[in-house]
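Subject: Predicted fold for EfeO-type cupredoxin-like domain-containing protein, 113 residues

User T.R. writes:
Posting the sequence so we have a shared reference for the thread.
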Amino acid sequence: MRHAIILRCAGLAGLLLAMPAMAQDPIHLTVKDHHFTPDHVNVPAGQRFLISLTNQDDTTDEFESYDLKFEKIVVPGGTITVHAGPLHPGTYKFFDDYHPDQATGTVTATQEP
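User M.O. replies:
I've generated the structure tokens; pasting them so everyone works from the same file.
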């Protein structure tokens, strides 16, 4: 019994070590007047990361990205957090689905030398 528990713990530890690292601090965005600030962010390739979005509009927004595979509603005055990555080097788009012509932005994943 004890041996089985040790093997399970070792297996779990191996899975955790194999997972991509999470970038340290969340990326903070705001949406105001149907525009993201900042509207472009850089992240390291190969790492998971968090994006925190605060809605300073007086309407509900839908933070979405086909490229990053997330979609989340954020109410006026609210803040949401989404997980993304790990990403291959490149540029990925995000937008407000309720105002897709105004509120757009990008994430660029870069490989560190």
